[in-house]
Amino acid sequence: MHIFTGTAQEWDHKAALEIVQQIKDKPDTVLGLATGSTPVNMYRRLIEMHRAGQVSFSKVKTFNLDEYVGIPREHPCSYYYFMQENLFSDIDIPPESVSLPDGNAPDLEEECRRYEKKIADSGGIDLQVLGIGHNGHIGFNEPNTPFESVTGIVDLTQSTIKANSRFFESEDQVPRQAVSMGIKTIMHARKIILLAKGADKADIIQKALQGPITPEVPASVLQLHPNLLVFLDNEAAARL
Description:
It contains seven helices and ten strands. It is α/β, with parallel strands linked by helices. The chain has a single domain (2-233), classed as 3-Layer(aba) Sandwich (Rossmann fold). The protein has a seven-stranded parallel sheet, with helices on one face. Strands 4-8-7 form a three-stranded antiparallel sheet, covered by helices on one side. Strand 2 (30-33), helix 2 (40-51) and strand 3 (61-64) form a beta-alpha-beta unit.
C-alpha cells in the first residue's frame, strides 16, 4: 500500500498522472472507473492532459463500477450520464469501448453475468479507480457484503440513499437498488487507486486502511491488495 497525501488539488493531479502513465505503458489499458463527486476534478485533469496531447484514450476500454436500477440513461443522475458529462464526451475514447452495467435490463441477473463475463473477456481490469462511502462501501458493496461477491444486484442502505440524495430532488427519488461490480471483481484488478477527500471521510479511511479486515467495512479488504495506491487530502488523512 502506498499512501499519498496533500491538498485535493495536488492529489487530483497526481492520480491523473498515474492513469496517464498507465495508458502510456499500455495503450490498450482496461480502466475501471468510479462516479460521485470525489473523482470529478481528477477526470477534469485527464481531459486537460488529453487536450494538451499528453494522452490518447483511443485504444482504452472502460468498465464502470456500478449503475442505478430503474432510471434511464438520459436521467441526469444516471451514472451513464455522469460519465458522459464528466469524462467521455471530452476525450477520444470510442463509444463502443465504454461499458456500464444496464440498470434497465429486462433480466438483471443475466445482465450481471454478462457484465462479469465482459470484464473477464477483456482480459480483466488493469487499473481500478475507487471512492469510498461513509460506511466503507466500495462500488455499491455495502457493509457485510461477502468478499467473494461478483457483479450483482445490491440493495442500498439508508445511509447510502441519504448520502446520494444530494444529487436528486428528494431522497424519495433515489433508487433503492443498483447493479455493482462485486468485491472479488474489484480485487482482481491489477492496480487499484483509492480516492478520498474531506474531514467526513477521515474516520472511515482510518478503519479501512488500519483497522481489522472485515466485511463490516468492505473497503478494509483493500489492505490485502498487492498494488494499492491511496490518494487522500490532508483532511481525509487526519486520523492515520
